[in-house]
Design a protein that fits this description.
alpha/beta; five-stranded mixed beta sheet; globular
Length: 161
């Protein structure tokens, strides 16, 4: 919900001839609780983005999880659905605020298809995008994850593509 950091690019490239692009990056983590992670994301997006692209980092509300580790909650499909209502609300806010795209950057991608059905801007999911890229590069790929209960969600995403 809270905007953490804007990541304007340090690049100077031919992109300046194009309209600026603003991307809402939505994390399943509380970025305020993970400042090193948020800073690493910020630096990464500054490094790889075109000069006219701004990636704005957003995390979950600070009171979302019972502990500082979201994996205890997101391993349960039902709790993912509850928390994903923040994704839906934030996606709608992104479109209303004029963002050009909404990036749902979490492996289980709860409510991804629901969000797409509600918005007119592009909506991308991390697992779906990574899987599609992997398929383009080779016949087989694997996904490493550290929460065993997420395996069915990941399988569903991969089967859908």
């Amino acid at each position: 919900m809270d905007q953490i950091q804007k990541c304007p690019s340090a690049h100077t490239d031919a992109a300046s001839d194009h309209a600026p692009v603003r991307i809402w990056h939505q994390s399943f983590t509380v970025l305020e609780h993970l400042p090193d992670y948020a800073e690493a994301l910020h630096k990464h997006f500054v490094r790889i983005s075109r000069s006219n692209t701004e990636v704005v980092l957003h995390g979950m509300h600070p009171d979302t999880y019972a502990t500082s580790y979201p994996g205890l909650d997101i391993r349960y499909s039902y709790v993912q659905k509850l928390h994903s209502q923040q994704f839906v609300a934030n996606a709608i806010a992104a479109e209303e605020q004029g963002y050009d795209a909404f990036a749902l950057m979490t492996l289980p991608e709860p409510s991804l298809l629901d969000i797409r059905s509600l918005l007119d801007i592009p909506v991308v999911g991390y697992c779906e995008s990574a899987s599609l890229t992997s398929v383009m590069l080779g016949m087989n790929f694997g996904i490493l994850h550290f929460i065993p209960e997420l395996a069915p969600h990941i399988r569903t995403t991969v089967q859908r593509i």
